[in-house]
Structure formats: C-alpha cells, structure tokens
Amino acid sequence: MPTMLNHSCQTHGSAAFANDSGHIGITPDPALIEDLVRANHILFDQGIVDAFGHVSVRHDKDPERFLLARNMAPGTVRPEDIVQFTMDGAPVDAGGRAVYLERFIHAEIYRLRPDVQAIVHSHSPTVLPFSVSRAVALRPVCHMSGFLGAGAPVFEIRESGGDATDLLVRNNALGAALARSLGDASFVLMRGHGSTVVAPTLKQAVYRAVYAEVNARMQMEALNLGDVVYLSEEEAATACANIETQVDRPWELWKKRVQRLHASDVH
After folding, report:
1. Could you report the per-residue pLDDT of 42-57, keeping only the tens digit for each?
2. Which of 34, 80, 102, 233 is catalytic?
3. Residue 102: active-site member
4. What class does CATH assign to 18-259?
C-alpha cells in the first residue's frame, strides 16, 4: 500500500531555542538600542506588524553582527529584549531565550548586502495580496514610495524549498535565496507570506515599510478606477533620493506617539 501523506495543519513552531554562538558580546550604542525598540513600537502602531513580524539593525560597532529582539510581539519589546546575532543567524547573548525562527532573513541579507543597515519583515495586509497576484505587480503610484523602483520582485520559496514548506524562512539556505531575489532592490515580496524591506538607516527602513503599505492601498484604489499611471523608474529614483532626506519628520512624529503610549513602561 502506498504511503499516504498527512496534509493536515501540524504545528512546527515559529520560535527557536538556539544555543549562544560562544562569541563575546560587544555593547552597542544605547541610543541604537532605544531606536530599535521604538522602531518595533512604531511598526506595530502603524499596523505594519501585529503579533508577528520583526525589525533589525546592523550592529554599530561590528558590521558582522546585527541586533534583533528575542521572539516576542513587536509592540511589547523593551531594551533588555534586544539580542545580538552573527551573520550565520546565531545568537550571541540570548541567554536561553527564544529567538525568531526567521532571523535568517536578516542574517543572509546583511551578509549579501553590506550597504543595508536595517531590515523590516512584515505581513502587512494590503501589501500581501500583491505577492500572490500574477497579473499585477506592486509598483510606485506616488512620490512617497519611490523606493519601490520599477516594481517589487517576488520571492518564490518553492524554487529553493520545494512545494511543501510552511513558507517561513527557516534556515540560511532559504535566507540566501530570499537575499538573491531581493538583489539590489529595496523591497521584495514573499509569495503568500509578506514582504521584506531594507534601507541604509533604521529610520528609512521603518519609513519604507509604512509607505509600502500606503502605496499598496493607493494602488488598489487606482486599479479600481483603471488605466493606472505609475512612476517611471527615473521618477521613482529621483523621488526616493529627495523625499527620504525628510525621513526625520515622520520618524519624530511616530516616535512621540509611541513614547506617549509606552510612557508607563518600566525599563
């Protein structure tokens, strides 16, 4: 009798308990830690992440490491929850705490892209449908989203992981495949999963994650009207270069809002 495959939904877990790498932790700038905590709170407040999703920043004193919260909901992150990781995705100072299973998204992009200083991975609800549409690409429709360039590439996990994965980037090989799909772009869709955005600063990464969702909503509305005019690749590049010089404006607005919301937190 042939073996029957069980296609029921089985729990595989989305957290990992990885042993620390044995490397000595290098203390990052406390201001960088604080900004990373605020980035988590902002992304939650703006509806880009919920209980899931994560944001990281490259270590300011060692470019071969990055900083990422332990496995937890972004809206609840505090400074003591930030963990250092190596480029292999190995935690340096987790101390037995669970870490994100998909830390390999961050590790492999940082490894391939030395220009990248910050990464956001999310499942934002209006962006995700573009990851499964073969007819419509996510493209910039306004000057605030020039970072989308000529349109977002799509990572198809089946090409590297087969057709029976849970769509999660669970290891270095899948992380490297995602990084290759991203290429030199700033944004990549992940089919049936979400998206990953990269940037030269943490503030820009947060800005891009927020405005990718804004652009997706605008594009959906424009598609309902029909005959959409998108930014040209040159317009997108010029808009990105100019608009993102103003990234402190939304960052300070968003930061003040979450500071008020988290004023009672005890650190």
Report:
1. 999 999 999 999 999 9
2. 102
3. yes
4. alpha beta
